[in-house]
Amino acid sequence: MRLILILTYFLLLPLISCSQSDSLRLLENGKSLPSQTKKKAYPNHSPKTAAILSAIAPGAGQIYNRKYWKLPIVWGGLAGLGYLWVNENNRYQDAKTSYLSLLDTDVSNDIPLNGITNVSVVQSTKNVYRNQRDMYLLFGVLFYGLNIIDATVDAHFMNFDVSDDLSMQLNLDMRNYTTTQQVPSLTCTFNFKR
Predict the structure, then answer these.
(1) Contact of 63 with 71, CB cutoff 8 Å
(2) For the CA atoms of 17, 19, 24, 28, what is the dihedral angle to 10 degrees?
(3) Lowest-confidence range among 102-111, 125-134, 151-160?
């Protein structure tokens, strides 16, 4: 459980630290200053390519998307989950060997597990190690899939317009429909300039 909390912390930390900057700008003679940063256009940027690259090699899609700060998260997460899986698999194999040696009738070749020779205790310990090993494998597969999804979504948003040219206007007016009474209506207009 502690590992899940630690991994969640390290996955969410970059999102918190890379939040959007303040959108308030100084006014000069009653007019706002133009935005100083221009977003680069990537006309040939393909989400399919990013997904394929991430599926072939974890982190390759993030490199393709120029999101280099995500590489330590992807590689560290997969390496950590791989380490935990190998560790639990070794513990499971030791418990399995001990359990099988305790099941046979020859007492001379019994291998105790941490000094325990009770067959039912060793069997339950073996099952716990197997369940933990399988859980880490599932987390690894989910993390690998999340890596692919992240690369694909980032590639989709490479050309997403976040400039100040986006606007919305709300208009409240009274309209006559088929009745003789006026009906209040609310109109919402979105302007997307390219």
Answers:
(1) yes
(2) 70
(3) 102-111
Exposure of 113 in the CB half-sphere (CA atoms within 13 A): 24
- Whether the CB-CB separation of 48 and 41 falls below 8 Å is answered with no
Residue matched to tokens 């007016």? 173
**Which amino acid is located at 104 in the chain?**
D
CA distance 16 to 35: 23
- Residue 41 clears pLDDT 70, i.e. is over it: no
Amino acid at 171: N
Band of residue 157 on the pLDDT scale cut at 50, 70, 90: confident
Mean pLDDT along residues 117-124: 86
pTM: predicted TM-score of the whole model, two decimal places: 0.61
Q: How far apart are CA 18 and CA 185, in angstroms?
A: 40
**Maximum distance among all Cα pairs of the chain, rounded to whole angstroms:** 102
Contacts 24+ apart (CB under 8 A), 92-96: 92/126, 92/129, 92/130, 92/133, 95/122, 95/125, 95/126, 95/129, 96/126
Signed CA dihedral, 146, 152, 156, 158: sign only: positive
Contact 189, 109 (CB under 8 A): no
**Domain residue extents for the chain:** 44-161
Residues in the chain: 194
